[in-house]
Amino acid sequence: MTMKRNFCTRLVLLGTIVCTPYTLAENLTYQWDFGDGNTSTEDNPNHQYATPDFYTVTLKAFADKSLSYSKQYEVDAVTPAIKSLTLNLPEQIEQGKSTHISVNLNSTYDLNLDYKWTFPNNKVVMGKSSEVVFQDSGDTQIALTAYFKDRPISEQNITINVLAAQEPDKTTPPKQDEGSSGGSFFWINLLLIGLLRIRVSVK
């Protein structure tokens, strides 16, 4: 008689334990392939991934050396390594002026992520940081998507307030260039002296 019971295999993913339930029969043997080159024949194995990635775990169960059960699980060993993903924005963003924005990744392991910024009018910029000029004022939506090997793992949508550009004060008279005014005064004096000399010579 075959007795079946449920138990949990623990896959240690960079310090995070994930339980995957399946059925155990007393006369079965097991073969695990963790997708990173490591295998196990234990009933209830523990495994720790050394490198962040997405892995396919394959479980095969054999009854009297014949395949009785086969199942694959996808294991995410990337997201648990991310502690935080923070956007760096200036306190004030003004319409029509260049604004520097960037993202700061805090992770347990060194992750090589790609970033896609989506701005108004569906403008897309790739990279960890970007220089952008917002043409319209008011509340503006931007989106940041982080990718690991072309696979999206994080998406943030942010609403920022863009301040209206300040118009120049037209009531303030333009400042005169001191150098040019001084030069004009010099030439006026020189012209008057010339006229006086002409009058003296005529007499």
Automatic annotation (TrEMBL):
Signal peptide limits: 1-25
Matches recorded under SUPFAM superfamilies: PKD domain
Keyword Signal appears in the UniProt entry: yes
Keyword Disulfide bond in annotation: no
Domain PKD: residue ranges: 26-61
Keyword entries, A-Z: Signal
InterPro entries according to UniProt: Ig-like_fold, PKD/Chitinase_dom, PKD_dom, PKD_dom_sf
Pfam families: PKD_4
Name of the molecule in the record: PKD domain-containing protein
Organism name: Pseudoalteromonas luteoviolacea
